[in-house]
Amino acid sequence: MITTSLPLPLEKTESKRNIVNLVNVCKYYGQDDTLVKALDGVSFTIQEGEYCAIMGASGSGKSTCMNIIGCLDTASAGHYFLDEQDVSGMQDADLARVRNLKLGFVFQQYHLLPQLSAIENVMLPMAYANVRPKEQRERAALALERVAMGNRMNNRPNQMSGGQQQRVAIARALVNNPVMLLADEPTGALDSHTTAEVMELFGELNASGITVVMVTHEADVARNTRRIIWFRDGQIVNDRLAPENLGHI
């Protein structure tokens, strides 16, 4: 790993655990002359309660890294510890269970089911976690209230604005009380005003103790976080870049 600036001042973190711990993680595609090193010996940690952005140019490895962190893909080599559990060698079924119980996902395009209401969309992850139907509805309602969508519980996606749909998607990501919220370009389909509102919500969620990791190519979005991990050519250039130093990378 190449580090180009001094690390940020460390807070007191004696009681905090590592939510993400990548140890010399590699991801290769092809072989011999066609070998592509999407990730080439990546190591870093993210502690509980952190608010991080993962950035880099197209093809830098940031999306591949996010897929591995989200248990959507596995490394070719190295180890990934999620919430202090080594998930590197897990089979697909086990990874699916880990994703459902440990992680909450927010995507650029919301991925809400159009035939379902807001509350029914938020209830979906709990169905796979074997939560009782009554508890599903109660927890989904609380999650929607948390993101200021309590008055839209019975609306379908086509009855909501883009920002409202993203708030529902965030409620869905929160409903299983994950150890980490993963957001992949969450403001990419939103206008600047709505982007500011959604980023304010992410900030509030992080302030409440939720670990947030976000992939973005937008500098203005990344500046809302508290730490930037910058990728280039499958490696980390800096894993503790302060947002105010973003223009100096």
TrEMBL record:
Pfam families: ABC_tran. InterPro entries: AAA+_ATPase (IPR003593), ABC_transporter-like_ATP-bd (IPR003439), ABC_transporter-like_CS (IPR017871), MacB-like_ATP-bd (IPR017911), P-loop_NTPase (IPR027417). The keyword ATP-binding applies. PROSITE patterns: ABC_TRANSPORTER_1, ABC_TRANSPORTER_2. Gene3D superfamilies: P-loop containing nucleotide triphosphate hydrolases (3.40.50.300). Keywords: ATP-binding, Nucleotide-binding, Transport. It comes from the Bacteria. GO terms for molecular function: ATP binding; ATP hydrolysis activity; transmembrane transporter activity. The keyword Nucleotide-binding applies. Residues 20-249 form the ABC transporter domain. PANTHER family: ABC TRANSPORTER ATP-BINDING PROTEIN MG467-RELATED (PTHR42798:SF2), LIPOPROTEIN-RELEASING SYSTEM ATP-BINDING PROTEIN LOLD (PTHR42798). Belongs to the ABC transporter superfamily. This is ABC transporter ATP-binding protein. It comes from Pseudanabaena cinerea FACHB-1277.
